[in-house]
Each structure stands twice: as structure tokens, then as C-alpha cells.
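for ur thesis appendix - Nitrate reductase molybdenum cofactor assembly chaperone NarJ. copy paste whatever u need, i formatted it the way the template wanted (i think)
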Amino acid sequence: MIELVVISRLLEYPDAALWQHQGELFDVLSESEKLEKADAQALGVFLRDLTAQDLLDAQAAYSELFDRGRATSLLLFEHVHGESRDRGQAMVDLLNQYEQHGLVLDSRELPDHLPLYLEYLAQLPESEAIGGLQDIAPILALLCARLQQRESRYAVLFEQLLKLANSAVDEAKVAEKIADEARDDTPQALDAVWEEEQVKFFADQGCGDSEITNHQRRFAGAVAPQYLNISNGGQQ
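the 3d part is after this line
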């Protein structure tokens, strides 16, 4: 599904390549058979407005939106596992899934980064790609609602992903659920998180060779070679 590649590109950190190759994305949208005309136009308007900005301004706005706080993080497992140990194993499982389909990562991006996951789905047969979107539909709906709440243009990308997934998620209920949710990207909220992490850090320094510390060492030793192998395209 080439449409997933387009949305993946639009969800990535803006760079000069997007400005240079925007014409190709417009062509894909105009020729799409999977998107309704109004939806293709909505994505085209987003692309037009994004590339009408100065690149540095677009990059700053992107970082402000997706890199401050966790509520709008594009790391899928952030919304499923948080900081639990299960997140590490989920990363390994997803890497294995990519490898089984011939996708070798050659970047430093984490495997659960949404644009990367969409790139992966785009290589699958359509039914499997839709199934993959449905698997993450609750996360997409949550992100969509939060972006709508913040009146962000990026919300349209998640609206289109939910449509492509034929999602059964009740978006109205999701919006209602987050209506009174406290923002986690304010200076006060970020300071609170920083203080909490500092407390955890100093607490960990006193753990010595506790079971938790040993587990972390074993996990790092098991996972690090896989990441090294992926980033080098399978060559040591």
C-alpha cells in the first residue's frame, strides 16, 4: 500500500528531501485508488502547508509536538508498555518480525517508531497491512484525539490511517476519555518528570548487584548485538 509510504514520509522528522521530492508524493496521492478523493485532497493540503513553511520552523514545530512528553510520542510501545521490562522484549520481537520479512534496519530509529512500522506494513500484502493497522488502531485513535485536542494539523494523518484500517475503534469515546487529561508537555510537567527520573537514577545507584541490575545487564548483553547487526546491514 503505497499510501502508507506517503503517510510514513509525512510523519517522519521533516528534512530537505521531503521538500525536494514533494512532487512525487502529490503524484501518488492524485493517483491513489485506496483513498477517497476528499481524503487524498486532505493529505495533499497537509503536504502543501507543511512544505510552505521554512524547513527549520517545520522541524522545530515537529519536535515540540512529538518529542516533548509522552502523550504524543510516535514510539508505539510507549503507549503499551511505558517503561516496563516488557517493552524491551517487545522491541526484540518486532525486530525479528521485520527480519522475517526481509527488512533490515540501517538507521538508528527504534523499531516501534510509527513511520518505520508503516514502512514495514507497506511492503506486505494489502490484507496483512490492514491487519497490522488494526493491531495498532487503539494507539492511532488515542494519538489522533490528542492531536485534535491540540488543534494540530498532524491529526489528519492519523484520521487517514484509521480509515485505511477500517477501524472499529469508537473515536468519540476516546476523545471523551482524554478530555480532562493533563498535558504532559508543559514546563511544569517536564520538570516533574525530570525530577522523578533523577530520583530513580540515584536510587538505582544503590542497588549494587541486585536482581534488577543483573537482569538489566543480561538484557543489554542479549539485545545489543542484534542492534549492532541490524544497523550494519548484517555485517560485523
